[in-house]
């Protein structure tokens, strides 16, 4: 479903010099799985996620999602391809001046849906995330967990095949975290959406991921597999992460 | 000079009622043209200034530098000097250098970069992540500008427009004195040159009321639009 091939991304440091956030990395995420990207701060996991929908363009290497070679697409073709890749953010990034329903409608508006179809789909998505009674509220009137549910509904609205989640629970308390993780797992199970989730918590990997890539200094150290909420790992780094969790 | 009674002052003012009405219309015309130019030209310029900043959608150092320099250049001119400098251009555009429409030319010239800066500053308050989310959803630059930037900044934009309107009410008085007409011009002609202080006081009071009304309306509208 998602193929990253030898992607490399470097950033210019404010004080000069370069920082290699992702080093010549290849990764394959299978259709229908929940795939985790885990590592410490600065390991390159968020950058790697943002390379998947080209929010960051790799300096070298190629990105293919759902058969589409994103790195080779024109600007307008890339915009169309992105409508098939939902994204959920740590800070929610909802539009403050739009109601919950209008936030969820946004990706459908830009994709050119008919108003009647938009209304029906927004209602459906509100039901899926359990916020039907909040449709006409504004984001400022919601709790963090509710905002993230709106974020998930918005990502889900255009029926994407892939959802990218960038630390979706890091701004939330443990109880809300679990309900958001359950929500993502539910969406994956019901609709077969492939989910890639960035986290620094082994708990997240254990509770919903099928597999995960452990990252360190911009490279994949190990691919972890999860069976019955047990993570099997070989590397010392993975073992140390499992111990703290 | 004979003592002026309050009744006499009121009578003088009511004799001037047609002139006051005319002056108010002229001020309205100068402001209307200046603000329209500011919104239609200064607004897009402000958006461009914002979008060409480093890290934004159309980040471009040279374009941003040149635009910023031009805006600063026009804004450096004291308004009265800008007005005099633009006399030849005004003659070409309007065919005359007196009257409210002629005065609207330098007013527009000053209002465009002023509003552009206000718009740029207002847009900076939108969290980058919100724009990024729209990009991730496949929004085009035009959709991002209209549906995200302008909509998210709408309360701030109304406040900016309020500031602009009040500043330019004052500028229009300056433009009025050199042939534009308007409330400020009337105050100077009667209140200052003819020593009719009651006209000066009445005109200043009129401006005070207008400013208070504009600010009140601006605040109300901004508060209503702001859902943050």
TrEMBL record, chain A:
The UniProt GO MF terms for this protein read: ATP binding
Q: Where are the transmembrane segments?
A: none
Signal peptide start-end: none
Q: Would you tell me the protein name for this molecule?
A: Methionine ABC transporter ATP-binding protein
Species: Vogesella aquatica
Please state every residue range assigned to the domain named ABC transporter: 2-242
Q: Which SMART domains match?
A: AAA
Query: What CDD domains does UniProt report for this protein, alphabetically?
Result: ABC_MetN_methionine_transporter
Superkingdom, natural source = Bacteria
| Gene3D superfamilies, sorted | P-loop containing nucleotide triphosphate hydrolases
Q: Which UniProt keywords apply?
A: Amino-acid transport, ATP-binding, Cell membrane, Membrane, Nucleotide-binding, Translocase, Transport
Automatic annotation (TrEMBL), chain B:
The UniProt entry, under CDD domains, shows: TM_PBP2
Q: Does the keyword Transport apply?
A: yes
At the top level, the lineage of the source is: Bacteria
Bilayer-crossing residues are: 29-51, 63-87, 93-116, 157-179, 199-218
Pfam families, from UniProt? BPD_transp_1
Spell out the InterPro entries in the cross-references. Answer: AA_ABC_Transporter_Permease, MetI-like, MetI-like_sf
**UniProt-annotated location(s):** Cell membrane
Presence of the UniProt keyword Lyase in the record? no
- Which parts of the sequence belong to the ABC transmembrane type-1 domain? 24-218
User: Main localisation, per the record?
Assistant: membrane
Bilayer topology: Multi-pass membrane protein
UniProt keyword list: Cell membrane, Membrane, Transmembrane, Transmembrane helix, Transport
Q: Which family does it belong to?
A: Belongs to the binding-protein-dependent transport system permease family.
Protein name from the UniProt record: ABC transporter permease
Instruction: Show the taxonomic lineage.
Output: Bacteria, Pseudomonadati, Pseudomonadota, Betaproteobacteria, Neisseriales
């Amino acid at each position: 479903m998602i193929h990253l091939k030898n992607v490399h991304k470097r950033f210019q440091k404010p004080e000069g010099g370069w920082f290699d956030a992702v080093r010549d990395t290849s990764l394959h995420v299978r259709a229908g799985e929940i795939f985790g990207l885990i590592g410490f701060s600065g390991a390159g996991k968020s950058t790697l996620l943002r390379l998947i929908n080209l929010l960051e363009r790799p300096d070298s290497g190629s990105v293919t999602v759902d058969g589409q070679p994103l790195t080779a697409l024109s600007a307008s073709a890339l915009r169309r391809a992105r409508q098939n890749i939902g994204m959920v953010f740590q800070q929610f990034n909802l539009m403050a001046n739009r109601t919950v329903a209008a936030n969820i409608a946004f990706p459908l508006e830009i994709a050119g849906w008919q108003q009647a179809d938009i209304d029906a789909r927004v209602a459906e998505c509100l039901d899926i995330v359990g916020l039907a009674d909040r449709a006409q509220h504004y984001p400022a009137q919601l709790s963090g967990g509710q905002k993230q549910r709106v974020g998930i509904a918005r990502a889900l609205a255009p029926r994407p095949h892939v959802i990218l989640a960038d630390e979706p629970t890091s701004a939330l308390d443990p109880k809300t975290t679990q309900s958001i993780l359950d929500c993502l797992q539910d969406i994956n199970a019901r609709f077969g959406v492939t989910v890639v989730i960035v986290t620094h918590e082994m708990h997240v990997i254990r509770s919903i991921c099928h597999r995960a890539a452990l990252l360190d200094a911009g490279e994949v150290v190990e691919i972890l597999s999860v069976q019955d909420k047990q993570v099997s790992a070989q590397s010392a780094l993975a073992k140390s992460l499992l111990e703290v969790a | 000079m004979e003592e002026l009674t309050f009744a006499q002052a009121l009578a003088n003012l009511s004799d001037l009622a047609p002139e006051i009405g005319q002056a108010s219309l002229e001020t309205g015309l100068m402001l209307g043209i200046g603000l329209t130019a500011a919104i239609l030209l200064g607004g897009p310029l402000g958006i461009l200034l914002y979008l060409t900043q480093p890290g934004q959608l159309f980040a471009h150092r040279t374009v941003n530098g040149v635009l910023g320099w031009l805006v600063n250049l026009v804004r450096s001119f004291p308004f009265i000097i800008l007005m005099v400098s633009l006399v030849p251009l005004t003659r070409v555009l309007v065919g005359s250098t007196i009257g409210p429409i002629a005065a609207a030319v330098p007013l527009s010239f000053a209002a465009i970069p002023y509003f552009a800066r206000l718009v740029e500053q207002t847009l900076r308050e939108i969290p980058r992540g919100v724009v990024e989310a729209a990009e991730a959803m496949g929004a085009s630059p035009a959709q991002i500008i209209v549906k995200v930037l302008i909509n998210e900044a709408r309360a701030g934009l109304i406040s900016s427009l309020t500031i602009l309107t009040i500043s330019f009410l004052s500028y229009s008085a300056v433009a009025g004195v050199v042939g534009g007409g308007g409330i400020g011009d009337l105050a100077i002609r009667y209140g200052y040159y003819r020593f009719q202080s009651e006209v000066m006081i009445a005109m200043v009071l009129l401006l005070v009321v207008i400013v208070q009304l504009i600010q009140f309306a601006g605040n109300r509208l901004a508060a209503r639009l702001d859902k943050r």
